[in-house]
Design goal:
3-stranded mixed sheet; membrane; 7 helices; elongated; binds zinc ion; 185 residues; zinc; mainly alpha
């Protein structure tokens, strides 16, 4: 096993401390060289940390790590969402398969019209699903921010979000939610 650098060891200890505070299994951490920003992968219960994140100043780094560990508390819901999506797509796709498998060749023109209707319905469902998943992921982000605020304090979380917003990493809704949290506290 390669020796971890000091910054990487530091991230691991932050993750372990946050996971203990949030009563969740500590996620694995993978250090990557890309520049996509930190992210959480529910399937592998893993946080990916890029080089730019490693170089963040300490207060900002703490919030970023707390936010990502916050996502680990949502793992069950994320995986259920994923399983539900796969099942729904499979169920939807099985409809035309059954129709075509049970129709005789002479019926072909009679099934092609409902078949076309099915394709239209399939794309409509896809659009609804994309809107729903955008809403779900926005809710996951707000919840992870709330967990970061509970660990590091709403004032430092807001300061971190403002820095990230200036870099274009986060949207205004997350900033507004954190400001409201700070006012309520
Ligand atoms: Zn997030």
């Amino acid at each position: 096993m390669k020796r971890l650098r000091v910054e990487e060891q530091h991230i691991l200890s932050l993750v372990a401390a946050d996971a203990a505070a949030l009563h969740v299994t500590p996620p694995h951490v993978r250090f990557v060289t890309g520049c996509a920003g930190p992210c959480y992968e529910a399937l592998f219960n893993r946080i990916e940390v890029d080089r730019a994140t490693l170089a963040l100043p300490e207060p900002l780094l703490r919030i970023v790590v707390a936010h990502e560990v916050g996502h680990a508390t949502q793992r069950r819901t994320m995986l259920l969402d994923f399983a539900w999506t796969v099942l729904s797509v499979m169920a939807l796709l099985s409809i035309p398969c059954v129709v075509f498998a049970t129709s005789s060749d002479e019926d072909f023109w009679r099934v092609s019209v409902p078949g076309f209707g099915f394709v239209v319905a399939f794309f409509a469902c896809g659009k609804i699903w994309r809107m729903r998943s955008a809403k779900r992921s926005a809710a996951f982000e707000l919840d992870a921010d709330a967990k970061a605020a509970s660990l590091c304090g709403a004032a430092s979380a807001l300061a971190a979000l403002e820095v990230m917003a200036a870099r274009g990493h986060i949207d205004a809704a997350r900033l507004d939610a954190m400001r409201a949290r700070l006012e309520a506290a």
